[in-house]
Amino acid sequence: MTSFEEAGTEETVTCLHMTFYHPCQKDKMMFRRLNFCKREQVRADEMAKFGRDSNVCHYNLMDTRVSRIQFSLQFYRKLNSSEFCFEIKNMSKRTKLIVDQTELGYLNKVDLPLKCIICFGDYQILAEIQEGESMDYFETHLHLAEVPVLQERCLPSLQPIPENGISSSWFPSQGKSPMEIDENES
User: Region Disordered: which residues (predicted)?
Assistant: First the structure.
């Protein structure tokens, strides 16, 4: 037998891609302590913490308006399933965390969708989960956005925003009901 035949099966690793945006990034450099464009391993039993305090948080945001610990991410496996997920928890007493349209107060938590936008203050983070099989660790891969991720994600709809500033495309289930159309109608 060759060493190739005896080698263990390579397992894939779950990777959380996060694209960060803040309108003042060029002037204030609040993301200067983040390691962009390089994957980092995080042990499955550790919590990934984002915030201002470098003694507690591995992912530091250099901004006095950010809480010491803004939010945390916990990697876990669903009960009776092989599916791996992330749970996001708001750790800030001052600032609400918004995950897509779900608003989280202090210590509230929710499962992170496969693709979502996380917002707090002027910060926008596009989070995308690339699924894997490893139970020992996951990876993070951070990116920096030049344009707002909300703008980038909402471009395909090209729907006008009403004067009240609330786009109905952000709340797809509100005020809409299925409509039956005859296939001969145009």
Answer: 166-186
Secondary structure class of 150 (helix, strand, coil) = helix
Into how many domains does the chain fold?
1
Assess if residue 176 is contained within a domain. Answer: no
pTM: 0.76
Calpha distance 175→75 (Å, rounded):
36
Whether residue 80 is contained in a domain is answered as: yes
CATH of the domain at 145: 2.60.200.20
156 domain residue, yes or no: no
Q: Which domain holds residue 120?
A: 15-150
Q: Is 126 within the bounds of a domain?
A: yes
Q: Under 8 Å CB-to-CB from 178, ≥6 apart: which residues?
A: none
**What does the angle CA 65 – CA 90 – CA 100 come to, to the nearest 5 degrees?**
95
Q: Give the C-alpha separation, 84 to 138, whole Å.
A: 10
d(CA 45, CA 17): 19
Instruction: Say if CB 123 and CB 28 are below 8 A apart.
Output: no
Could you tell me if 21 and 124 are in contact, meaning their C-beta atoms sit under 8 angstroms apart?
yes
Segment 30-65, tens digit of pLDDT = 999 999 989 999 999 999 999 999 999 999 999 999
User: How far is Cα 60 from Cα 20, in angstroms, rounded to an integer?
Assistant: 12
